[in-house]
Here is the input.
Amino acid sequence: MAEHKSFTRGADALGVTASAASMQVQALEEYLRVPLFRRNGRQVELTPQGALLRPKVEEALADLERAIDEARADRGSGPLRVTTIASFLAQWLLPRLPNFTSQHAGIDVQIHTSTLLVDFVKTGMDAGIRFGAGTWPRLHAQKLFDEWLVPVGTPQLLQRHGLVTEARDLRHYKLLHSTYEPWTAWLLEGGPDEVWPSSGAAFDDAIAIVRAAEAGHGLALSRWSLVADPVAMGRLAVAGRPVRSAHAYHFVCPPAHLALAKVAAFREWLVSECARFPSPPEPGAARA
Here is the structure.
């Protein structure tokens, strides 16, 4: 009605009579106890209350339409759409994904990266891997593995400056700083706090700080999942004791998606792969 500015034209678009449309609007106004339309001869326009309500109603109807389309569609066919964060994708999932595709050649995988909490209905995602406390509304969540914060540097750097067995040992190093894993978190969790690191470059990208550490620019504090492979390959070594993160990685999906064969196959593979993922080694070890 608001789009056509007429009950008659709006009713025609809906396939009902003008009187039926008018009665429905009147019933809604009585229920809400506010006027939604202002009548001006044969034309109608939204009142301020109606204008406030309109975008919310349109959004709700669009969500309902998408949900109906999803329910009608055969979600078991087509590619497997997975959402996760870019750093986890690049450093952990991508190196292991060929194992899944070789076992399930008939399943094409599409990966979406975002730091935001993705709406599965709006984006059409089938499943996801999220880093957090493990509770997300309207989603099934299964813990995959705990995360650890670990100080890492090149083996050559550790040979020159020694291991970090206490906070004051950090004075020997140029420290690389991350927006997401600040050194203060490791110091507060692990003991003495008389050394508050401030020197060295700062990064707002979790992958970039790993690359900087691999290049020998300094000592970095990183999530273990992002440096496990570089440590296993000898490019990095663990310089100090790992500290368990308050968050972990979880497989997530809408409960209804658990019945989809492609989602079930991915979940089963992912859980098995994560079960083999090693915990951080002792400080000084160059290989996991």
The chain has three domains: 7-72, 80-146+247-275, 147-245. The chain is about 40% helix and 20% strand.
